[in-house]
Amino acid sequence: MTKRSHADLVAERSQSKSATSALAASWRRSMLKHGLDPGDSSRPERLTLAELSARRQAMEGFLNVAGPQLDQLYNLVCLSGCNVLLTDATGVVLDQRVDDADAAQFREWGLWQGIDWSEAAQGTNGIGTCLAEGRQVTIHRDEHFHTRNIGMSCMDAPIWGPDGRLVAALDVSSARADQTERYNRLISAQVAQTARAIEAMFFRASFPGARIVVASDDGPDATMLLAVDQDDLAIGATRAARRALGLEREGAIRPRPAVDLLGRNGDLTGFDKAERAAVARALARAEGNVSAAARALGVGRATMYRRMARLGLT
User: Fold this and answer.
1) Strand partners, 138
2) Which residue has the higher pLDDT, 221 or 282?
């Protein structure tokens, strides 16, 4: 597809009311909401060093957590000519990993620190569309809005902060002309896994004095976490946990007894399993003597029986 025909196709579908795909919706936002021209070939503007430094300083704790994960991801994709980028919630690239041999091409495209890759600035692209829609996306070559970007493939995943709000986008972009959609899917899966790892690690770092509890045993979602204080009150929750447990979508959560959240459906998950294990160990050490086990746990005999009944121990 030529650059002109690509621009014409984007313009046509952006204004078509019958085009209902997610890609068409992003193209429409880019053209109608943000007033962009798909044929615009001007290079993106870059923040000054002082502006970039200020943004990086504001997210220093997050960048410190994310850095080792970026290194690991880059080690997996560097031989395939990929650029690993991490942005803030507005789409500005704050950190990256790229091979010297590929740097010139990515710099020419503007996939570089200090460049704004929001949809408002660049139209449909991996970073901007990921942040605009809050979901994992792959934008492959001519799916980009701007004709100047149709030579790249971008695989992105959002990273959610401990307050339930978007904090960043993780991107792997490829400059290879022979990049296939099948290979993109493999990279995309690794990007999503790394994004979840960064999210979980940043959540743990944000509650240094709390016990971190996995809120559910259902499914592989390692980001469904609760932060529980010394009084066994849930004081923090990841976005996935907030959604699963019906907590506040964003901001601070109202402290609640962890057992009320984790045991409300009658299933033993997280906190309940830990408590059950502790009670079972005390009973085993006391050779089944409930009074002795209660004394070891520092509770009364009646309380011990109530806990045993609730936890399904006889």
Assistant:
1) 155
2) 282
- Two tokens, residue 100: 């010297």
Nearest CA to 214 out of 226, 199, 228, 202 is that of: 226
From first CA to last CA, the distance across the chain in angstroms is 71
Binned at pLDDT 50, 70 and 90, residue 13 comes out as: confident
- The string over 91-129, giving b where at least 16 C-beta atoms fall within 10 Å of a residue's C-beta and e elsewhere, is bbbbbbbbeeebeeebeebbbbbbbbbbbbbbbbbbbbb
Nearest to 196 by CA among 159, 239, 241: 159
Q: Which two tokens stand for residue 216?
A: 């559910």
Identity of the residue numbered 295: R
pLDDT tens for 171-199 read 999 977 777 778 888 999 999 999 999 99
Which amino acid makes up residue 288?
A: G
Tell me the two tokens of residue 153: 């493939």
Contact between 198 and 159 under an 8 Å Cβ cutoff? The reply is: yes
For residue 276, the model assigns a pLDDT of 81
Measured CA to CA, the distance from residue 209 to residue 31 in angstroms comes to 48
Residue 248 has pLDDT above 90, yes or no: yes
CA gap 254, 252 in Å, rounded: 7
Contact by Cβ (8 Å): 165, 89: yes
Identify which has the larger pLDDT, 177 or 269: 177
Cα–Cα distances (Å) from 56 to 45, 52, 98, in that order, read: 18, 6, 18
**Smallest Cα–Cα separation from 157: which of 197, 107, 103, 123?**
197
Q: What is the CA radius of gyration of the chain?
A: 25
Cα–Cα distance, 160 to 221 (Å, whole number): 13
| 109/149 Cα distance (integer angstroms) | 7
Please give the full DSSP string across 286-298, using - where no structure is assigned. TTT-HHHHHHHHT
Number of CB atoms found within 10 A of residue 168's CB: 29
pLDDT above 70 (res 29): yes
